[in-house]
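Support request, please re-run this one:
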Amino acid sequence: MKWLLNSKGLELLYKTHVRSSMEYACHRWGGAANKHLALLDKVQGRAVRLIRDSGAGQEPRLHSLQHRRDVAGLTVMYKVHQQRVPHLHTLRQPLRRTQVTTRAVALAPAELLQPRCRTWHHQS
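Re-run finished. Output below.
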């Protein structure tokens, strides 16, 4: 398709057909090995070279795939915790507060949340 389209057309073709397939459920790629993510980045690098060499010489406006994965992960977390989307309810984790049993906390529980210290100096 390189000989039929200009740089804008190639960029649009890449974004709609190739990158959309690589980004499907991209928040699941968050814990993948770097060698697997490098293969996806290699595909985008080749697309950037093809678009740049198509004649206009201008750099394509493509965000990195890592940036797109980060945004997708943040979007899912926002939907889980703020919007409380029903189909993502199983991902929601309850908030966990540690219980501290000291005399000061018993007197003013709303003022002090302190993790338990294992050092003798701080306990005295």
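The two ends are 74 Å apart (CA to CA). The mean pLDDT is 76.
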